[in-house]
C-alpha cells in the first residue's frame, strides 16, 4: 500500500495509532510516550468518551479531550466492595493497603481489586477501577491510520506486527512493579496455567 492510498481521516474500522497523555486531577498519570497505542476504531477497544471524539481527526491532528467519568471508567460504585478472610490469602501475600488483588468473578473473568483496609480477620477490597469517578483529561495526536487486515476486522481488534494479540489497553500496567506481581505469586497462583487472557483464538 502506498502512502497515497493510506486513509487520512479517522473513521470506523480503521486502525488508529494514537499518542496520548492522560491527566487526572491535574496530575499526569499515563502516557503512550514514544510508543503510540493501536486500536480498531469503533470497536470499543478504548474508552467510549475518547473514541467518539476521534472521528474526523486527520493524521497529525492534535486534540484535548475531557471525558466525564460516565464515559470513562464509570462512576464510583459504593457497593463495589468485598470482604475476604485473611486466611484465604497465601501466607506470603503482602496484605497491605493499596496492594492489587486479582479475583475471579462467577464467569471466571479476572477482576482487579485493591486492598482498602484490613482488620484482624478480614481484608476489605475495593473493586472500583482506580479511575472510577474521575474526569479524564486526554491530550491526543493521531500518528498513523491504516486499513485493518480481514482478520483484525473479523476479531474486532488490532493484532501486532508479530501477529500477536494486543492486550486491552488499560492502566493496570503502570504500577505492577510495585506490588505482589514482583515475586510472581499472585493471589490466584494455584491456577497460573489458565492465567492467559486469550479469549478468541
Ligand atoms: Zn484476534
Topology:
Layout: E1 15-24, E2 27-31, E3 37-40, H1 48-54, E4 62-67, E5 81-85, E6 100-104, E7 110-118, E8 122-126, E9 136-146, H2 150-155
Antiparallel strand pairs: 1-2, 1-3, 1-9, 4-9, 5-8, 6-7, 7-8
Bound molecules: zinc ion.
Zinc ion (ZN) binds at residues 155, 157, 159, 165, 200-201.
Features:
9 strands; five-stranded antiparallel beta sheet; 2 helices; mainly beta; binds zinc ion; 201 residues
The small-molecule ligands in this entry are: zinc ion
Assembly type: single chain
Strand content: 25-35%
- Based on secondary structure, the structural category is mainly beta
Q: Which series of helices and strands comes N to C?
A: EEEHEEEEEEH
Count the E strands: 9
Poorly predicted regions: 163-197
Shape descriptor: elongated
| Major sheet | 5 strands, antiparallel
Average pLDDT, all residues: 84
Number of helices: 2
Radius of gyration from CA coordinates: 19 Å
Share of helical residues: under 10%
Q: What is the rounded distance between the termini? A: 27 Å
Describe the structure.
This protein is mainly beta. 6% of the residues lie in helices and 30% in strands. A hairpin with a 2-residue loop joins strand 1 and strand 2. It is elongated and about 65 Å long. About 17% of the residues have low confidence. It binds zinc ion. The site of zinc ion has 6 residues, from loops.
Amino acid at each position: 500500500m502506498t502512502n497515497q492510498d493510506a486513509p487520512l481521516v479517522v473513521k470506523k474500522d480503521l486502525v488508529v495509532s494514537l499518542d496520548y497523555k492522560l491527566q487526572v486531577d491535574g496530575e499526569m498519570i499515563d502516557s503512550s510516550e514514544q510508543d503510540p497505542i493501536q486500536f480498531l476504531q469503533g470497536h470499543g477497544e478504548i474508552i467510549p468518551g475518547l473514541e467518539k471524539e476521534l472521528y474526523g481527526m486527520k493524521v497529525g491532528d492534535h486534540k484535548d479531550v475531557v471525558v466525564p467519568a460516565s464515559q470513562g471508567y464509570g462512576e464510583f460504585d459504593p457497593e463495589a466492595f468485598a470482604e475476604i478472610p485473611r486466611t484465604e490469602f497465601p501466607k506470603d501475600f503482602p496484605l497491605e493497603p493499596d496492594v492489587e488483588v486479582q479475583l475471579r468473578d462467577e464467569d471466571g473473568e479476572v477482576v482487579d481489586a485493591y486492598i482498602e483496609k484490613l482488620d484482624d480477620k478480614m481484608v476489605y477490597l475495593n473493586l472500583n477501577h482506580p479511575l472510577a469517578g474521575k474526569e479524564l483529561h486526554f491530550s491526543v495526536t493521531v500518528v498513523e491510520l491504516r486499513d485493518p487486515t480481514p482478520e483484525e476486522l473479523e476479531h474486532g481488534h488490532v493484532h501486532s506486527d508479530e501477529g500477536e494479540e494486543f492486550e486491552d489497553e488499560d492502566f493496570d500496567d503502570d504500577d505492577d512493579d510495585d506490588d505482589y506481581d514482583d515475586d510472581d505469586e499472585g493471589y490466584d497462583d494455584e491456577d497460573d496455567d489458565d492465567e492467559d487472557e486469550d479469549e478468541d483464538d
